[in-house]
Amino acid sequence: MTTLTKKVKDIEQEKENKLKAKACDISIKEGSAYSISEGFGFRYITPYALALGAKNTHIGLLSSIPSLIGSFSSLNGVHLMKEISRKKLVTFGVFIQALMWLALIGIGVLYFVFGVDSDIAPLLVIITYSLLVVSGAMTDPAWNSWMKDIIPEKYGRYFGIRNRICGSVSLLAMLAAGFILDYFKKTNLFIGFIILFGISFIGRSISAHLFTREYEPKFKAENHEHLTFLSFLKKIYKNNFGKFTIFQSVMMFSAGISSPFFAVYMLKDLKFTYIMFTAVTMITLIVRLLVLPAWGRFTDKYGNVRAMRITGVLIPLVPLFWLLVPILLKINPALVFPYLLVTGTISGLAWAGFDTGSGNFVFASSNRENMPMFTAYYSIFANIGNFGGALLGGILSSLSFTVFGLSSILFVFLLSGIARLITSFYMLPRLKEVREVKKFDTSDAKRIIFHLSPHNIIRILR
């Protein structure tokens, strides 16, 4: 009887493993559909707002308010998981996201066709885009919990592969979008945005459909009373995950000071075409795609904290590189574009490792029971930081002043670089790895660098 019971359990386990493997495959397809929406829509929300007359303050709010509200809505998502299956919750939220792309087109109709004031149109974009982000953020805890149940143990490798595939789709979509906008800029720019957001609607609708086909393991809603927000706050300075959450919040504040305004600087100050803007943004994505699998393997072997410490040195340099643009403009304006491509390359390399390490750190620090609450609280702190940074950057870059010979927007880049540097050097050493990993020291780094060759580089990136 015992043997028979064991065989039945083994058969059931094998069946579930096959369903999980199929779900992992479907998740990659769903992510690819989302990436279509990302490449055609999310990546061009700032240019769209600028086309509708948005000012720097609007851009700061556009890049921060949606995610801030979304992070609080994720708490509701945790509670909804007790009443609604994760699959239904995620599918519904994603479908609402799809509809919001049509609403954004409607705002364009009001502005370009009916002449709505340029002060009102950007505010409508902020409100609608906030609803779009909130509808997705509300499903994040359910999605994270769902993925925690189906992905293999070495999630660094799986997400490295998934992110590379999805990123490739996003890259192609973004490139096509840039050509579309540049083409219609000569005739009717709004038609270009209608095409972009229409495709985004289709992509997100496909995502919703694919979620209905993805296997969801049985989920028992846990009582999270011991993980209330107040109890989390009380212990935030005492445990490793709490310190990590504070670090991420401060880093997002530091990055948020400048990150929304690189696009503004390119399109308004440097007068880049949409293709040039797309190319600079794309190079970052290309590099991310190339190195994500390598960073995934690195974090699996050497740990997530080590990845963040290495990239924490590079990330502060990114906004500081932009300070050299005015000098290049005086020497030879033709140098600016290739210089920013190099800057984007460094940015992609650094943020790929940092995001891989920080994302996997959340997974490694939690189990399937507390994952929803951990991700919700972590998201709230990170987005509060991003909101504060973007708001400060928006206010400063909207003012007219000069500091150290730098314009207000370049001063924002300087401030962001200094803040990132202080955050990395002061807070990263306080974080500890949550699992046993192989030690990585200077000898390992030298060995990797000295053995670099075209063959080894290809092998590492594979």
Can you offer a commentary on this structure?
By secondary structure, the chain is an all-alpha fold. It has one domain: Up-down Bundle (Growth Hormone, Chain: A), CATH 1.20.1250.20. 78% of the residues lie in helices and 1% in strands. It has 20 helices and two strands. Strands 1-2 form a two-stranded antiparallel ribbon. Helix 3 packs parallel to helix 5 (120-137) and helix 17 (371-398) runs antiparallel to helix 18 (408-427). The longest helix is centred in the N-terminal third of the chain and has 39 residues, at 2-40. The protein is globular, with a radius of gyration of 23 Å.
- DSSP, total strands: 2
Q: Please tell me what the overall shape is.
A: globular
Q: Major beta sheet, specifics?
A: 2 strands, antiparallel
In terms of DSSP E residues, the strand content is under 5%
* Helix percent band: over 70%
Radius of gyration: 23 Å
Order of helices and strands: HHHHHHHHHHHHHHHHHEEHHH
The CATH topology assignment is Growth Hormone, Chain: A
Report strand order across the widest sheet. 1-2
Task: Give the number of helices.
Answer: 20
Number of domains: 1
The poorly predicted ranges are 448-461
Roughly what is the average pLDDT, rounded to an integer?
85
Can you say what the CATH homologous superfamily is?
Answer: MFS general substrate transporter like domains
Mind telling me the CATH class? Answer: Mainly Alpha
SS content category: mainly alpha
Judging by the overall fold, what is the CATH architecture?
Up-down Bundle
